[in-house]
Amino acid sequence: VGNPNSGKTTLYNYASGSKEHVGNYAGVTVDSKRSVFKHRGYTFNIVDLPGTYSVSAYNPEELYVRRYILNSMPDIIINVIDASNIERNLYLTTELIDMDVKVIIALNMYDELEKRGDKLNYDFLGKLMGIPIVPTVSSKGKGIKTLFNKVIEVFENTEESSRHIHINYGHEAEKSISRIQEAIRLEKTITDKFSSRFYAIKLLEKDKGAFETLSQYDNYNIIKAVTEQEIARLEKNTGDDSETYIADAKYGFINGALKETLVKKTARQKSYTITEKIDKYLTNKYLSFPFFLLFLWIMFQSTFSLGAYPMEWIEKLVEFTASLMTHIIPEGFFRDMIVDGIIDGVGGVIVFLPNIMILFFFISLMEDTGYMARVAFIMDKLMHFIGLHGKSFIPLIMGFGCNVPAIMATRTIKSRSDRLITMMIVPFMSCSARLPVYILIAGAVFPKNAGNVIFTLYLAGIVLSIVFAILFKTALFKKKEFPFVMELPPYRKPTIRVSISHMWDKAMQYLKKMGGIILIASIIIWLLGYFPRNGKQITNEIKSNISLTTGTKTSQLENSYIGKIGKIIEPVIRPLGFDWKMGVSLISGFAAKEIVVSTMGVLYQADDNQDGIEGSLTNKLQNQVYIEGKYIGQKVFTPLVAYTFLLFVLIYVPCIAVITAVKRESGSWKWAVFQAVYTTAAAWVVSFLVFQIGTLFIR
Ligand code: GDP
Ligand code: MG
Predict the structure, then answer these.
(1) Contacts of 378 (CB under 8 A, 6+ apart)
(2) 95 alpha carbon, distance to own chain's centre
(3) CA atoms of 88 and 103, how far apart (whole Å)
(4) Which residues contact 348 (CB under 8 A, 6 or more apart)?
(5) I need a surface site. Which of 174, 252, 589, 631 has the fewest CB within 10 A?
């Protein structure tokens, strides 16, 4: 099989010694010709099929080829490719890959490629696609023997690069594909004959032939319903026709594979596509990385500065709710719980909703425009340098959103060791749940440079992930693995509607988290701080009197359960410059990173020793001073302490959801526990060094 004019008939004639008519125009071969010949003790039944650009069942040729492949089930398919037009020819190849049939590529017209001075690393391209490639010049009979020797190797399963790969159609489409596959698999007899993945993809392409073929089966109605649902979902989420979307993904695969293997001698002068024009800069050897950093920087700057305004409004609303509750609920346990527990806790976190939405708006923008895939491509080289493949970069980037789906996305990495290493380093990609902590602390302590401070944290995370990847690769795993294609899809205009809906989904998720785990954690922290009660309750009036003479008085909070827990962990975190409340906040952050903030909200708001300070949590943090010990009177959140604390939050154990995801994906608790322990140890060591060395210089 192959495109028209790729030289199929010429190859067929040479191999079989027959004299079919060859022509320099499409459609010469209208039906199939067959002949028989012997080679190395094998009898070959070779069939010359009509030329097609794809097997989408639009015209008689395509339909013929597709039926032939699916019904006659040839042992091996020789895909004849015109080497002077590889991109377009490989489209059909991607469909053969989907069909999960044994393929070998005759890279025909290789003379033309050489004449032009282009260089193709066809061995590597074959390894990437899992299809052995043999260069041929059919018109001169060159390479044909080698081709059929390879055919025998593939048939006997002794060929090294031959394997079945999955083309990655992107996160959303892959979800649709597996759902449709499930529907198809309800009927076992279908998958005996055809690859369910191929049909799922064809159905997503709205391919009439696929619907027709499947309509003979009992589960057709289910298949049809699921397909329609998935097409609608995909089109809504991508803002694109599902057919176009799949085709783009296929070209993304082809472009990615060729970018790594094909060097054209002279760049074509004529008509650069927009994608090529943009790529000249964005994937340029020297500029790509600075550009990526610039985009990240813009993202975190705007996340902080644009978010500041709506954040203020929500802050006001939270304050208003608190004072409203203070007025309408009678004094006592219940009011304290609502105001000091729930509102201080959940309210402290909810103010960051706008920031989260802005962050996801940017992430979705980068994904939709195709820039994210480019970043992965740029990173491929760097990833190879640290012993991983560019494929690992996609989960890593997803980690900026949330580490849990990122851990799940490591499924696309075939190599187990690469997958494990990627899982281990994903948490260094600072997830959006940590952002509230950064914004709170950086905003309070570095109000002028908060955006930059946050940016450095993200960079620190990236650097750490590199360090640990190299460490793991050299210490734990050393095996070499198969290469994979990095997709390089074209740039698209982002659709604002899609970005908005993405943002909205994330906002809803965030709010749900507020109403769930963060609410519960706030109440627990508050309860632990409320009990046991002091013998004599200090009322508000006397409290303001004794606040002048504080210093020796220990407060309700410090005598509470949480205070006692805090005292226990204090020795461990003292060398890092943290007070016990930070320690408790860090521990509670294991449940979810936003809880670091809600716990701080409850603890710093509740402390009756710091009564002079009014207003928002930011204010409280800025003016928090030590009331005892050797730092008495000094500020708790100095710039050094604050930055050390942020580093600790960045590095230490990811939340429980990530740990369980690692357990699930790696198949054992071993890796999950290892991750929890090593990240926390790393956090402590880094924080210790930064704080101790920092104190030498900053006095
Ligand atoms: P088909 O449509 O795929 O069957 O292609 P044909 O076998 O009819 O070949 C189309 C044209 O390409 C013919 O003029 C062949 O002589 C020419 N051709 C086939 N193979 C090669 C090759 O390897 N190199 C060159 N330069 N021309 C070739
Ligand atoms: Mg022909």
Answers:
(1) 283, 288, 289, 292
(2) 25
(3) 17
(4) 440, 597, 598, 600, 601, 602, 617
(5) 631
- 582-609 exposure pattern, b = at least 16 Cβ within 10 A, e = fewer: bbbbbbbbbbbbbbbbbbbbbbbbbbbb
Q: Give residue 544's pLDDT.
A: 44
| Contacting residues for 104 by C-beta, under 8 A, at least 6 apart | 76, 77, 78, 79, 131, 132, 133, 134, 147, 150, 151, 154, 162
CA distances from 666 to 394, 418, 681 (A): 18, 12, 21
> Considering every ligand atom, which ligand is closest to the CA of 109?
1
With a CB cutoff of 8 Å and minimum separation 6, the contacts of 467 are: none
d(CA 633, CA 631): 6
Q: Say if CB 395 and CB 422 are below 8 A apart.
A: yes
500 Cβ neighbours under 8 A, 6+ residues apart: 361
* Three-state SS at 480: coil
DSSP annotation of 7 reads S
Which ligand gives the minimal distance to the CA of 142? 1
Listed as own residue / partner, the contacts of 381-386 with beta carbons closer than 8 Å and 24 or more positions apart are 382/466, 386/466, 386/469, 386/470, 386/473
Residue 272 CB: number of other CB atoms within 10 A? 13
Ligand 2 midpoint to CA 395 (Å): 45
- The model's pLDDT over 514-532, given as tens digits with 9 standing for 90+, comes to 888 888 888 888 888 888 7
Residues 605, 616: Cα–Cα separation, whole Å: 9
Helices (H) and strands (E) in the chain, counts: 35, 7
Q: What is the CA(116)–ligand 1 centre distance, in A?
A: 17
In residues, how long is the chain? Answer: 699
CA distance 199 to 215: 12
Secondary structure (DSSP) of 494-546: PPHHHHHHHHHHHHHHHHHHIIIIIHHHHHHHHHHHH-SPPSSPPPHHHHHHH
Cα radius of gyration (the chain): 31
Which residue, judged by its Cα, is nearest atom 19 of ligand 1?
7
CA count, 13 A, side-chain hemisphere, 654: 30
Strands 103-108 and 133-135: parallel
- Mind listing the pLDDT tens digit for each residue in 11-29? 998 998 876 666 544 444 4
- Alpha carbon distance 606, 329 (integer Å): 18
Of all ligands present, the nearest one to the C-alpha of 14 is 1
Residues with CB under 6 A from ligand 1: 2, 4-10, 22-24, 28-29, 51, 108-109, 111-112, 137-139
Query: Which atom of ligand 1 is least distant from the CA of 12?
Result: 7
Q: How far apart are CA 65 and CA 99, in angstroms?
A: 13
Q: Which of 581, 568, 572, 559 is nearest to 637 (CA)?
A: 581
Q: What does the alpha-carbon distance between residue 235 and residue 173 come to, in Å, rounded to a whole number?
A: 10
How many angstroms is it from 268 CA to the middle of ligand 2? Answer: 29
pLDDT range class, residue 534, cuts 50, 70, 90: low
Task: Give Cα 117 to chain centroid, integer Å.
Answer: 38
User: Alpha helices of 592-668 — where are they, by DSSP H?
Assistant: 594-606, 617-623, 639-651, 656-666
**Nearest protein CA to atom 22 of ligand 1, as residue:** 109
> For the chain, what percent of residues have pLDDT higher than 70?
91
For the cut 60, the answer to whether the pLDDT of residue 368 exceeds it is yes
Other beta carbons within 10 Å of 84: 16
